[in-house]
Amino acid sequence: MEHPGEGTRNGGSFVVSCESVSFSYPGSGRPALSDVSFELRPGEYVGVVGPNGGGKSTLVRLLNGLLKPDSGRVLVSGRDPATEPFEVRKHLGILFQDPENGLVAPFVEDDVAFGLENLGVPRKEMRDRVAGAIRAVGLEGFERREPDTLSGGEKQRVALAGLLAVEPDILVLDEPTSMLDAAGRREVLAYLETLRAEKTVLHVTHHLEELVRSDRILVLNGGELVADKTPERFLSDADLLRENRLVLPVVQRLALEIGLSPARLRTPETLAEAILAKTESGTRAG
To answer: Would you tell me which of 65, 203, 242, 270 could form a disulfide with 85, CB atoms 3.0–4.6 Å apart?
Structure first.
């Protein structure tokens, strides 16, 4: 298995580290995770993909201390989530797939403040951080809106604002767009793009096109980490995609078929521009 970061393993610090982590649910015939090892460096944007039952959700629960490994070790900002979950959650926030589950207050600003209240943040600091988080996700003017009146994309951005207000160093995105329509997905993904290099991000998704600009992509299947590749190598590896029941998005599939880089093209518009540029280049060469 390829590990793009192995050359720097001895240099710099890792904000997330999984060392030979294994976990089995009671009564299960096979491990949910088996001997999984990887690290995240500060500012990395890393995707996690794989078929259903591959171990993605188990990994998320291990990272925030909801589960404890049977063997191996998980460290988040140097702390063990199994023994120091509340300390870990100051550094790591999770955005789940269903925004409805994360909205608990009658108004948007109260919802964004919820995590800060639990941490005992002073009132003035809380107001400043809530205002900054709401502004960051583009929802100024929504402070006194009731969450039930918002679209799916707006609800997910409120949930994200609640995480940002706590100011975690690490964001874990657990299928954050799977419950959204096309417009909602575009809203959330556009904002997540602005977080690149500001936060360390682990993005779990079934939508491979969401990861074309990530730094690395991890593939979990049958509880094992079967690949750790750059997007370019991942999207070009037909055998890896087939063996792990991963379907290449239409834009990337077409790009490969006509000899273009699949990792640099995210939308039909960018594909069309690349085809035009290639055609013009060929015409000039002729």
So the answer is: 65
pLDDT score, position 13: 84
Asked if residues 153 and 188 have their Cβ atoms less than 8 Å apart, the reply is yes
Cβ count within 10 A of residue 167: 16
How much is the pLDDT for 283?
61
Per-residue confidence band for 97, with pLDDT thresholds at 50, 70 and 90: confident
Distances in whole angstroms, Cα of residue 38 to Cα of each of 3, 17, 218:
9, 6, 9
Q: What CATH number is given for 6-248 in this structure?
A: 3.40.50.300
Residue 57, C-beta contacts closer than 8 angstroms, at least 6 positions apart: 174, 204
The domain limits of the chain are 6-248, 249-286
Cα–Cα distances (Å) from 66 to 32, 37, 60, 250, 267, in that order, read: 14, 19, 9, 37, 37
**In sequence order, which residues have a C-beta less than 8 Å from that of residue 137 and are 6 or more positions away?**
157, 158, 160, 161, 164, 191
DSSP string, 105-124: SSSHHHHHHHHHHHHT--HH
